[in-house]
Amino acid sequence: MGDSLDFLTKYHNISNKLKKRFLRKPNVAEASDQFATLATECEQKELWQYAGLCLLDAARCQETLENIFSELNFLIKAGREFLVADKKDKDIGCPSMGQENTQAAISCFGHALARCHNQIGFNTMSAGLALELALALGPTPAGIQQLCKAIDIFPTIKAINTLVSYHIKQGDYVSALQILNDFVEFVESYINVGARGNYSVILHRCEVTRVLLLLILQPSPQRLAPCLAQVLEKYAWVEETTNNGKCSTILLFT
């Protein structure tokens, strides 16, 4: 309780410095530094949510000063503090009903992504932020949304693999299979066989996963795409054997 009151006092004192006064401009740079310092104090006291609030205000100050790099740095740090606060609450068995910290983190990362939009050389960073948030959110609709955003900005193997994993954990096997199909088609269409390198290993894993997904979905032969039929033929062989008048099917995975 004492730490919270101390924080509120310091927070309001800094905020008051930003109020416009007659013939005097507020010292925004100084306020930004003080918010950052207060955030460090809160972090040391494990007041993660308060640290996030301070960093968010520091980011707003940097936005006023038009320092985009400092603004992005504070926004990302703020988002991470809110994620830590959310995790700590869950670890002690007291998750927030309104998910305020999660929503605050999504807002911070979202604002950072918006600021990166159309900035030259920021694609990799933007995709990385969306992926980081997706990993923190886990296999949820919000996590899947962030993964799709990351892949749209800058597709990576990790993002695609995680998206497939999230769909499988959600029980959406059709979407998982479609993503794998699209990825395999892209690699086979645009990357020469001799230049695939590690992609050969990745393609092999994709094929095995597609076989397993097909075994779960069990589509009818009429609805099975030719490419998937070829995958099944490659990874399975059928031998009819007579055993007490019955036929058995043997499936071998290589």
UniProtKB/TrEMBL annotation:
One GO CC annotation: early endosome
Recorded superkingdom: Eukaryota
PANTHER family hit by this protein: 40-KDA HUNTINGTIN-ASSOCIATED PROTEIN, FACTOR VIII-ASSOCIATED GENE 1
InterPro entries (alphabetical): F8A, TPR-like_helical_dom_sf
GO biological process, one term: vesicle cytoskeletal trafficking
UniProt source species: Frieseomelitta varia
UniProt-recorded name of the protein: Factor VIII intron 22 protein
